[in-house]
Structure formats: C-alpha cells, structure tokens
Amino acid sequence: MKIGKDIVYISYEEMIEFLKQKHVVPHQTVSKRKQAWAVACINGVTRIIAGKKEIKKAIDRFKIGEKITQIKITKVVLVKGDPACQGKISGHVKIVNNIDELDKIKQGDIIVTHMTTPDYTPVFNKLGGIVTDDGGITCHAAIISREFNIPCVVGTGNATQVFRDNDLIEIDAYKGTVKLLDRALYSVVQ
To answer: Does residue 23 carry a catalytic annotation?
Structure first.
C-alpha cells in the first residue's frame, strides 16, 4: 500500500480488499481520518466516518447525540500535569481504577490511575511510568515514583478519561506532559 505509519487509519476490511483487488484507500480519505474519525454500526452496517463535518452530520442524522453524553474530536491528544519525578519514557497504558486491576500490569507498562495508595506499591518495580488524575508533588504516587526513579506526572485531571488500555503514550516528566503516540487498534465495546 506504500502507506507507512498511516496504516493505523486503514480498516481491516480495507486491508483485505487491497490484498484481493489492489484497491488503495485514497490519500484524501486518510487525510480526513487523521483529522477525525469514528467507527459506527448504523442499521447493521459498520462504517468508518472520516472528517469532523462528516462525523457531526452522522451524529445529527442518526440522532447519536441522544445516546452519547460527550463526544470529543481532537487532533493531538495531550494532557498536562505536574512533574513529580523527572524523566522521559514511552510505554503502553494500563488504566487502573482499583487494586483488583493491578494483575494486568506487565514490565514497562505505564499506569494511568486516579491516584495511588500504598496497596499499589508491589507493582512499582514493573512500571515504566506513572500518570495520575489527582495529587500534587507530595502525593503517594509522587513520593514512590521518586523512590523508584520512575518518570511520573500527577494532577492531570483527566488522564483516565483520555487514554485507554494499550494506548502507546509518551511521558515527558520534565515538562509535565503526557502525549498519545498511537491508539490501540481494538477496544472493548460494552
């Protein structure tokens, strides 16, 4: 396809179609998807909707807004907080809402949570980084991150809402920023 990193904007079905028929998704379509995109199942048909205007039209046409409380269309996903332990690292997100979810953390993962407690301490030796919604430079996550020398950004306010499990993110704990590098290609639909 000669598409490089933009392959993340191509659906599984479009890849199969390329392999069968050599049909390439037009560059304009990929550019619109870079701006904003959504996957919708409308009347039993799954569609990729590309571009901010097209997404808003679909929301109005199919009255999706009545079922969804909030829709964010963003080009660059970046959250800001306070640097608690300086460093810069990239890794995969593990959203942890309570200690029962700690078992999903693998070596090098970045924990994204509301806040940590002493119950989280056993997994700190596995972590590549820590991001919290709440807390300041004297909170539990900040203190423990400095003890373990783990890059940490605290007090983002919304990281658990912005990022998803398996997203690839970059923590820049010199600037206090957390940036989405690559979105996981799958997610659990409830």
So the answer is: no
Strand partners, 113: 96, 132
AA letter at 47: R
**Alpha carbons within 13 A on the beta-carbon side of 131:** 35
96: exposed, middle or buried (Cβ count in 10 Å: 0-12, 13-18, 19+): buried
Average pLDDT of 130-151?
A: 96
Cα–Cα distance, 158 to 84 (Å, whole number): 17
**What is the number of other CB atoms lying within 10 angstroms of the CB of residue 29?**
17
* Three-class SS state of 163: coil
Contact 64, 47 (CB under 8 A): no
Cβ–Cβ < 8 Å for 79, 160: no
Read off the pLDDT of each residue in 71-90 and give the average, rounded to a whole number: 81
pTM reported for the whole predicted model? 0.60
Backbone angles phi, psi at 157, to 5 degrees: 85, -30
